[in-house]
Automatic annotation (TrEMBL):
Keywords: Signal, Transport. One of its GO terms (biological process) is amino acid transport. It comes from Lactobacillus johnsonii N6.2. The lineage of its organism: Bacteria, Bacillati, Bacillota, Bacilli, Lactobacillales. Residues 39-261 form the Solute-binding protein family 3/N-terminal domain. This is Glutamine ABC transporter substrate-binding protein.
Amino acid sequence: MKRKLRFFSLFIVLFSVFLLSACQKNTRNVYQEVKKSNEITWGVKADTRLFGLMSIKTGKIEGFEVDLANALTKEILGKNAKANFVQTTAKTKIPLLKNGNIDAVLAAMTITPERKKQIDFSDPYFYAGQSLLVKDDSTIKSIKDMNGKTALAVKGTTAVANVKKFAPKAKVLEFDDYGQAFTALKAGQGQAMTTDNGLLAGIATENKGYKLVGGTYTNEPYGIAVNKGQTQMKNAINRALVKLKKDGTYDALVKKWFSGIPGFNIKEAEGEK
């Protein structure tokens, strides 16, 4: 009987600790925390040219989204604020956010109804669309041409479902990251690599013999993700985005990273028709 009572008491203690921890997570106010620390920790890409790529020369992650995160941090917290960066992948960005390892995700993340069930998004900051990357001598001209062919995509992205929607007879091979997917394209494991046009543009700029085809066949707006219920943080990000667009900072960053890429429409990416 005493053993049962001790076990029950231990169970109550552990359960209480669990509830306390859960409550603390639920009541966490990220906006107030970053204001106090004067730092924001962003989850970013480190494997995607133009958006976020680890530089061999500097040992730092560089790209459009890193520059934007730095600008947002200073707009939200002040010119002396610090932006910290944590490398994320398609599979890790939501868990890292949910666990409190990062304050926000700025990593070419498409706003979708499914993701909105787990996290909240800012207003769109980049209007992407899914496209195809092929070899220069490819006969593929559009997504419809992928029926009966093999498309290469990354796990955890919206690209897989979109291929099946627009080319139901296409086969899709999934990889852990964009580097693996492009290596598979070079090796002839598929006829086209597919993801958002901005990501493919980055790959095309550093690999001769490859091009984007077919324009965009989806509307894939990117949003900055925060954990569910972090309304203050989300609103602060939205206000900062508006200011950066008004003062020209945002436009300058888009042009810095995406101007001069054949077939890429900067105004479209900025949300202008």
